[in-house]
Structure formats: structure tokens, C-alpha cells
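User: Second chain of the day. Same drill as before.
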Amino acid sequence: MRQVRIGLVLTVLVLSCSARSNRAQYADPPQNPSIPETLTPETSALEEIDPNPSDNKHLTMNLQNASNLSMFQLQERLYSSDQTVSGLALGELIRRGEQATPVLLEALTHENPRTRRLAAEGLQEIADPASADALFQATQDINGEVRARAAIALYTLGDDRGLEALVANLNDYPDILHSPYTASMYPLMKGGQEVLPLIVPLLRSEDQLTRERAFLIVEAVATRLPEVENWENLWRSLGSYSPTAPQTERDTAAQQWENWLEQL
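Assistant: Same format as last time:
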């Protein structure tokens, strides 16, 4: 499976990502939402690719010679400002697995936030338990994209701190092609009942986007619970919550969701 994923990294990295416009609002979310290509580990390194990359011949590498590079050489390329070069280096580091963990842990503290984000993506793919504490620290990075990627990586490791980190960084790293979705939303939406106690209280948030995102997660999780036979019936029975309704109506419905959650 890792070989397939790395193949996607190295294949897609030659493409330019030009579609940048926001699309649907809350009223028009994607059906059966899943992580879109723009935010998967295979392609998220591409989001800022320069369609006219520099001609740094000494840094240029391809699929044939990447496997022959030393760790030091890969680290040098991971730090490159040429985004194709750094993306290819990341793919090769992921392919090498846990032996690349020290390089990525060092990159996780690099001065360039994009490099730190790539490091978090790589550590997510490698899933080395030794990276857990560093990833937790990175969930408090000053850069939102780094925080979100580190939270996803920590959650992927199965670390007990991962779920709370995802919720804490819920609004970081928006998916520009699928508004109002964010990077942290996708693993939360695939979670189980354990997600709800942390998300349902956000239905009362003062921030509308936070409410919208929280409700999308509640819907995604609740519809998979064996206790929920019909989502629309449940939604109506609990006050027809809407993130855009007046506060009194929202809070009344949110209270019913909290009561329902206590009875699960």
C-alpha cells in the first residue's frame, strides 16, 4: 500500500495545481464527504507548486535517481525552495520508512513553515510512534497548516492526544476546494461516537463557521451509529438545528443534542 501511495506522490508532483477558487458553501457540501485529493498526503505538497520551477540543476532529481540519494542529500532537497524538488524528496523519505524519522523530526522545527508541514505529512505516513511527542508540540505551531497536519499525524498514530488536537485545530488549514471543510474535519468525520462529546458543544460556538463545521461532523458521525436509523428524523426530533439560525433557536436545539448524547 505504501508503494502505491508513494507512486501517487511522485506521479502527481509533476502537475501544477491551478484550481484555487472556493466552491460550495454550507448549503451545498460534497456528497459522502471524504478527503479530497487536494488534502491527501500524496498531493498536499503540491498545493503551492510553481508552474515554472527554478533551474537548480544541482538539486533536480527524478524517479530514477531518488533512491540513490543519501539521507543528507534528501534532507537538503526537502529544505529546497523548489517545491517539486522538496515534494519528491518527501516521497522518497516516506518510502524509506522509520529510518527517515530523524530527518523529518529535525525538519519539523525548520524555520520555513512549509518545510515543517511537509515533515508532519511525512511523519503521518511513516507512523513511527517515536515521533508522537514532537508531533504533539507541533500541534501548537504558530502556523495553522503545520498545526493541522501535526494533529492529523498524531491522531493517525493512535496517540491519546490526537483527538483533542484535531478539535483544537478544527478551523486550521481550510480545504480551498471544498468550503467549509478543513484538514482536521476529515478524520473527525470518519471517527466514531468518541468524537461527539468534543464536537457537540461546538454547536453553541459564537463563530458561525465553527458551528457549521461542527454540525457537519455530527451528521457524518451520527449517521453511522447503529442507534440512528434515519438521520433526518433524528435531526427534526432534536429541534432541526441550523448553524445559521438565531441564537435562541440554535441553543435550544444544541441542548437537545447534548441531552441525546448523554443517553447514548
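The two ends are 36 Å apart (CA to CA).

User: Great, on to the next one.
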